């Protein structure tokens, strides 16, 4: 029988002192070996502060078997994947990685893009430069 869970996790030969939660949970096999993404969410474009930028989130990839269907009455998309819209918050990246390892999930970490703030000043528009004076004709 095919199992998406690595053999080292199933037989308990995984190095380390952690036993994967997938082995003990009794969850269906297709839900045990999920790939998760660990990332720090970006702030929206309308925010100027850095609130909500200090925690890390973990969410699950969409199942590949097409557990989606269209509701014939309304035409809405439905899904049997209960983890599709779920995300967990963590204080730091290491806590999220530790949780994913403990649950037996394959994971990848998406590092955030850091902003580079260039200092600007309005007074720089009026600094003297030793070039030739620029004349703009008005008539």
Structure explained in plain terms:
With 139 residues, this protein is of the alpha+beta class. 17% of the residues lie in helices and 18% in strands. It contains four helices and six strands; from the N terminus they run H-H-H-E-E-E-E-E-H-E. The protein has helices at residues 7-10, 21-25, 29-32, 93-103; strands at residues 35-39, 56-60, 68-70, 77-79, 87-90, 106-110. Strands 5-2-1-6 form a four-stranded mixed β-sheet, with helices on one face. Strands 3-4 form a two-stranded antiparallel ribbon. Strand 3 and strand 4 form a beta hairpin. The longest helix has 11 residues, at 93-103. It is elongated, with a radius of gyration of 26 Å. The mean pLDDT is 78.
Can you lay out the helices and strands and say which pair or pack?
Blueprint: H1 7-10, H2 21-25, H3 29-32, E1 35-39, E2 56-60, E3 68-70, E4 77-79, E5 87-90, H4 93-103, E6 106-110
């Amino acid at each position: 029988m095919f199992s998406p869970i690595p053999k080292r996790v199933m037989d308990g030969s995984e190095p380390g002192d952690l036993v994967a939660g997938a082995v003990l949970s009794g969850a269906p096999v297709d839900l045990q070996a999920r790939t998760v993404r660990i990332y720090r969410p970006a702030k929206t474009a309308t925010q100027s502060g850095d609130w909500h930028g200090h925690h890390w989130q973990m969410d699950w990839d969409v199942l590949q078997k097409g557990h989606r269907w269209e509701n014939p009455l309304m035409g809405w998309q439905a899904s049997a994947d209960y983890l599709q819209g779920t995300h967990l918050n963590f204080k730091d990246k290491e806590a999220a990685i530790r949780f994913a390892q403990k649950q037996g999930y394959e994971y990848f970490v998406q590092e955030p893009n850091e902003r580079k703030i260039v200092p600007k000043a309005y007074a720089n528009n009026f600094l003297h430069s030793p070039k030739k004076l620029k004349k703009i004709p008005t008539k």
